[in-house]
Each structure stands twice: as C-alpha cells, then as structure tokens.
Amino acid sequence: MTSPTSRRPWRALSAAVVAAGLLAASVVPAAAAGSTDSIGDALAQASAVIAGEARSSFVLPVLPDTQFYSRYSASQFYPKYDTNPFEVQTDWIVEHQDDLNVPFVVHVGDVVDQEWVTGEWDAAAKAMQKLTDGGVPYSVVPGNHDVANMSARSSEANSWQYLQRFDAGRMAAQGGETFVDSFQNGLSTAYIFEAEGHEWMSLALAWNASADTFAWAQRVIDANPGIPVILSSHAVINIALDQTSPADWWWGEELWNALIRSNDEIIMTVNGHFHGTTMRERTNDFGHPVYQVLTDYQMAADGGNGYMTLFEFDLTNDRIDVESVSPWVTVKDKESLTANDTPVLDGKWQSFSMALDFESRFGYSPAAGSETKGDLSERAKEIVLEGWDGTGVGEQWAAAGRADDYVAVDGTVAHWRFGTVAEGVVDSSTVIPDVAGDSPMYRSAIENTDAPEKLEDVQVSHSNVPFYSSDRGAVCFSDVHRNASGPDNMSYISTEYGAPATFADLSSSSGYTVEAFLQLDEEWTEAANRWSAALTRGGARQWIGINDSSDPGAGAAWLGISSLREYQFSAGDSDSRNSYTLWSGEIMPGSWHHVAIVNDPAADTAIMYVDGVPVLRNASNVGGMMAADFMPWIIGASTWNTEVEHGWHGCVGETRVVDHALSSGEFLYQRADIGSSFSVSGDFGAVLPADAVVSSFSGRGYAGSAVRVMSGAEVLGTADVLADGTWSLSLSSPISGAGTHTVSFVPSIGTRDAAAVERSIVIGEAPGGWTPVETDLTDALEGAISVDPSRFAPGSVVSVSLPAGHEGATVYGYLFSSPVSAGSGVVADGAVSLTVPESVPFGEHRFALYAADGAVIGWDTVTVIDPTMPGGGSGSGGGSAGGGSDAGGAASDHSLATTGLDGSWMLLWIALGAGTTAWGLTLVLRRRGRAQWREM
After folding, report:
1. Which strands form 566-572's sheet, in the order they lie side by side?
2. Tell me: the pLDDT tens digits for 785-826?
3. CA within 20 to 30 Å of 413's CA: 210, 477, 654, 886, which one?
C-alpha cells in the first residue's frame, strides 16, 4: 500500500529532547519559581508526546545524478559560493548523521557529466570524501556519463576514469567494516551496515551490467541470506510521458527477471538517469512487494537544486517513508531564488510512504531501547527548513494590472502580443501586432503551404496565458507531429519578408535580448515533437556564413525544444562566425515559462534565463546574432534551408527582441515601477490650527498610473498621473476637526496596487499651528516620558507615561530625526496610547511628546525593530518598514537582558538536562559493531 500524496500533515515535530524542552518551556512562565509540580507535569506531557511518536527507524539518504554539480563546480559554483551543491549535500548528511540516525548513503550514478574531464572527477571525489571524513560509509555506481561508451556493457576498460576515484580498494577503505565485496574492480559493490539492531545490505550494480555481474550479485545474496537488500543502479525504471507514471526500461526488465524477482531479500531498487520522480510496486515470486523508485533532479535549477531523497526505514510502523529535501536552497543567493525554490518538495512521488512488514518478512522487530527518536522524516524537514523564510526575488511576481503593466525599454526591435487579437482561429487575415514597431506577423493561407494543416490548428487563447505576463493572450498550435513520410503536420505565423525587424543588426558590440513566454502542450512527445522551434530567425546557416557542420541548413537563430525537453537556443557569433548553443534543464509539459536569452557584450556571454534563473549550460566568449537581412522572423516552427519544418506543439505568449542586453529587472514578467516615483506634497510634520480644512492633495507619480486617497475603506478622491508625472485631486469629504486624521495614498495601474503611502494630518486644538523640530528635544527633557515598550515593530501600539498635570489633555507624539507623527491621544491615568505608523524606518529614534500648544513634555529613546529578522533586528536604521507589519516582534518583557537566571528558567534548564541525559543514553545504542561478514 502506498500513499503518493503528501505523507503526513506538516507537523515539524522535534526529537525527544527538543519536545521535552518545548513542553517544559510552555509551562515554566506560569509556574512559581519553586514549583516542581509544574516541571513534573511538563515532563509528563513531553513523555506522552514522545510515546506517541516513538519509533525505531533510520534514514538512508540517496544522492541522485550529481553530474552538473561536478561539471560546473570550478567555473560557476565555487566562484560564487566557495562550494557547490554536491558538497553542501554531503556536508549536511555528515552534520546531521546523529540527528537523523544515518548509517549509510547511496549514490545512484552520473557522478560527473563529462567523463573525460579530470576536474569534474576531482570535484566529485572531494564531495564524496566529506562522507568518509565524517564517518559515513557509502555506495556509488557509474552512470552512463561516467563511462567512455555508454552503449557498451559494464567493463573496467570502459570505466577507467571512474576507477581512478572509486576502485575496489578505495571502496573497501571508505566502507570499512560495512564493505562486503566488489566486482569488476569496484564497478559493482556490496555492503552490509547495521541500523536499529539489524543488518541491511546495499547492493550497487554498475551501468549496463551484464550476466556476469548478476551472477556475482546472486553469490553475495546467497552468502548473506535473510538480510534486506536495497539495490541501486543508474537506470532501472523509466518514467512515462506524463512525467508521473513509471515505465519499463529494458535493462531494468533484464535485471528483474535475472535477479530481483527470485530473491525475496531485495525489497527496493533506486535509480536516477531519467528526469523526474516516480515509483512502481511489483510483486516478486514470493508474493511480496518490491518497490522501485526513480529519483533524478538534474534538470532543476543549478543542475538539481541540491535535492536528495531520504528513505526512513520505520520498523515500528512497518513502512518506508520517502521525503525529498535540499540543504542547498537556503545557501543560494537570494537574488537567484524563484517561486519554485523550496527546501522541501511534496509532489506525488516526492513525499510518500511504502508499506513493508519487516517482522513477518525478515523477523526484524523494533530495536529495544531505541524507540525515542520520533519522526525522523519530519525532523529532516525541520532541519532543512532552518533559516528559510520562504521568500525570494522570484516570488515577488505579481499579476499585471493592465496590458501596459510591464517595463518598456528603448531599443526594442519587435514586440509581438496576442491580447488584442480576437480569440479563436487565426487565419490569413489575422494581424498579430508588433506593438513596438512595424513588423506584424501573419499566417499564410493554408492552401499556400505544403503542410497538411487545418485552419483550426492555430488559435489565439485569452484563457491559457501565463499569469505573470501583462499580455492576456497567446497563440497555440495543435495537431503538430512528424509524419512517417512527407511534410510534418505543423503551422506557423511570421513577419513579412523585408519587415523592419528582419534588418535588425544584433552584433557582438551591441548585444541583444530575446524573450518569450512558452508552453509545451501536455500531449507533447519526444517521438512526434522533438527538435522543434518556438521562434526562428530565417535564413540558412551555410549561406549566411555561420560555421555549423551539424546544422548547416538551420535558421540563423532559433529558440526551441530538444528531444529531452530542454529549451535550446542557437545563434552564430558575429565575430568568429561559429555557432553557439545554450541549454536549459528539463521542461514539464503544460507549464508556462518565461525564457530570455541575453547576450551581454560587456561580459562577453550569452545566457539563457528560465523564469529569471540563469541555466548552467551557457556560452562565454561569444556575441551577436548573425543573420540574413530580409529573412522573416517565425513563431511556431524551425526552418531548414529557409523552408519551415518541425512545428512547435504548444503555445507562445508575448515575444520581444531588444537590440541590447537587458537585466532581469527589465524582463517582461516585471511590473511597471509605480511605487518608487510616487510622492505626496505637503508638510505632514506640522500640527495644523484648529480651524484648518484640508480639501486637496497633489504629488508626483508614474505617468499613466492612478492614485486614490483612502480613509479606512472610504475613498476620498482619485486622480490620474499626467504625462508630466504630476497628479492632483480634490477630496469628496474635506478633512477637518481636531485630532489625527490618517489617510492612505494608493498608487495603482489597472487592477494592481502598489504599497500604500500612509500620511497623518494632525489638526490641533489651538488657534495657531506649530511644527515640531529636532532642536525641541533638549537634554533636560530626556527621560521626562517613558515609552513602553521601548522596542517595537512598525504599526505597534505603545503606552507613553508622562508627568502629572496633563490628565485629560490631548498630547501629540513624534519620532525623530525627521518628524514622523505617531498620532495624538487623551491622557488617562498618567499615560496615553499611541499607534506607531507602518512607514516609520527601522532603527533607533527619539520619541517626543508635545502638549496642544506645541510645548515639549519630554522625550525617550526607542528602537523600531524589523519583526522578520531573528530576534527582532533593528536593521541599519535607514531602511523603511514594510506594510502589513504588526507588533508581533515586540517582547512582552521589556526590561534589558540580564546575565542571571530566575528560578523558573533554571527549572527549564533542569528539564532540558534530564531530556539530554536520556537522549545521550540512546545514542550509545545507535551504532554497534557488526559481526565479521561470513566467508563466501
């Protein structure tokens, strides 16, 4: 029985000692200093939780294809991070081997990407050495990228580079007492490790191993009967086109019939190679389940995003829990994060359980005295989420407010959009506008094309569009496939020959940017749709003069999809005349992506960005886009010798070509900046006279945007920002009357609002107005008032105590250096409550209190904290507090920290100490020396 959905609710429970400490902490504040009964109650509660979560289990980490970590370690990862995802993975395992009860690690192959490159092997060996140095044995196998000829069966001669780092001698040395035997000098290996008082075997078989390897594996199993076997190899099961279901792989079927089905010891296989995650449950000849798991993340960001798969073998609950985590995501540069980055994955085959009755099948019962560790899978997620705030630059994407809510840039060659085109069939009369120039696109009449296409094969959709494009339209191509003979089934749209965009000179000195929103159809298949293009610049390379022996008839440049569902961009360097190609990771059908190609002459690079994240396989020392003037731009097909072929099966959203390099902050998914240029005119630091009436406002903003003034939920006025950047409006209800009148100014563009700007209009009770200034705050008045709390978040309510003589009077609060109004209030019982505005900057301030006539009553030093920072950091004092903050960052105890411990906290430490002692005793049992392996 399996559960392909999220394995359990998000509990994030800690191990026993942590649970005990937290429960003790929850009652200590309410207990008297000498109340041992409360501590006893807390420990009893902790014991109850521990009993509920008690289990005898261990975690087996599996490292999927690490090839890109090794390949790009020296060129990309180390220059930026001084480490790489591979090393971060192995460091994390070593650091938490005791927390998670890790006895062993499995690597499923493709250790490197290019087996002939020594530097890749050096990077891989360094990462794996961290396991050895940390006392964690492992198994590893060669994958197809680790051998010279991936089509050949396993042999030492074909794997000589791999054996320079992972031969039998080295495997025996790192494995220590767990090492059992090897075959072909270490290409296949076997280990027996101990966990939870029982023995377990890791049987690792080389890529494309043949019958002699199977025979060796059978001998190892026969010599160690009754020990559960986890079999690893690089490719055992495949994944279906739906990217969810398992599929057969010829070698895996050979392995199943030759070894797996007839050996009841084999409980699980794990492999990589095929991009994605899936699982299949099969039944062996004994009627027992065998679980086959595929885990491969190499096409995620950074060549895998540091994801590894954790298998928790739970003897108490008779199951294997599977989780997918990444310690790398929290290491990454914040600017590189997207909405897809998360330290924990919970997809269908990324978080699930597999039932296995260990006792009935192997006689394995929970180890006596070890059932105190709790849920290790949840603990692993808890650990990997430490320091993760769930935010990144990419997650700030917002739906556009209207069609022009994007960053318009000078130098745009063409910008094709579909939102204003009527939804439905595109025919020869349909015009696809170029909103930046004069190069629209059209569809050729179907009677004038060679392809067996139908009119309805090209349609504009206003519903199937990416939410982060401001253009609410896309062109979609259906019934696209190759035919056994004759032309492909396909359709396309294109500019006219000689349109202005066809003469764009995108040289190495100018650079360029090409960007588009792309979606593969959910019915996309490799057989029917491989090597097709979404965007092509026409011409033929061989007569343009581009040196490309592989694709001499291909178009001048194209952005398309490979047979492995990788975005591919290729163009010709205008200096060397050689072609260059960029590649993404694997792309999932049905998903929209923004793809940008940026050639930056200053950096001498061409980089592909997918949803704002640079891919790993880019090009250096290249520039420009060679082309043939007059030849059209085409959406929906590639070309060969100027004839269209290989149509795009899917949709294409707005597409833009620019004659220079753009930054990611200028890409089409970015929104128009309507906030930073917004301002409101007026002296909001002043206290106006009692008879003042405010009936209008003015300011500056983003041309074409709008502004509305709000008092709570009431709209007091609206205005458009004029072309010169100014705005002004009259209020429907003028502001008057003594008191603090808080209004919000909301810049907007269409349906999208920017952050509101809050201002307070203070109208006094005196006939004359006055303005607070910092020089009012003399030394003699310091401490005359007291602000509680003295540390608070923006938006907090504070209580200000003041000297006698002001009872029932209205007073006014201001924060300096620049006066920011904290509103006004009536003094009651020697104090007044005031609300700190959301917009007050973080850092230290002087909080002053004024009487109605403008006389200073006193001032106190306060600190405005950032509640999102650990411990409520105060920042540098120069930043602005974001909207939506509350007083949650303020502590209830506002006294300064002390070095002593009061009785209640001492009791907490006693509780934690007791828990730690119990925890330490169980760790002694974690690893036991295994009896010497029996002779074969």
Report:
1. 441-442, 493-495, 633-635, 532-537, 557-561, 566-572, 579-586
2. 999 999 999 999 999 999 999 999 999 999 998 889 999 999
3. 477
